[in-house]
Amino acid sequence: TDTVREAFIENAEEFAGRPKLYMIHTTLKGKGLISSPFNSDFNEHKKFLQSSLNKFGRRRSSLEINCLQTIRETLDEYRERIDSNFEYTNSQMRNNISRIASQNVLT
Prior knowledge:
The chain folds into two domains: 1-56, no CATH class; 58-107. It is built from six helices and no strands. The chain has helices spanning 2-10, 12-15, 22-28, 40-55, 60-81, 90-105. The protein is extended, with a radius of gyration of 19 Å. The chain starts with a helix and ends with a helix. The mean pLDDT is 75.
């Protein structure tokens, strides 16, 4: 526990931040909300994103409600297919994540 306390309390800045994910880091070059470190740039990006979403009338609660509704619809579709030896693949997972994102951000 002393080692953990030392790492997270006494040396918090060294252990803060996100893990470096090769694909995201290479694509975004450390920019954007999901890949930037927690610093002033991150705070600026976050404020910009929040204000931009608010201008379009998408506050957190309505976006969350719409995402949950789309997820429920997707789960209902899968429940209908369970009896027919349905196999869920990574490709289908990616497609559904894209579907959920596009239906709730672009609408």
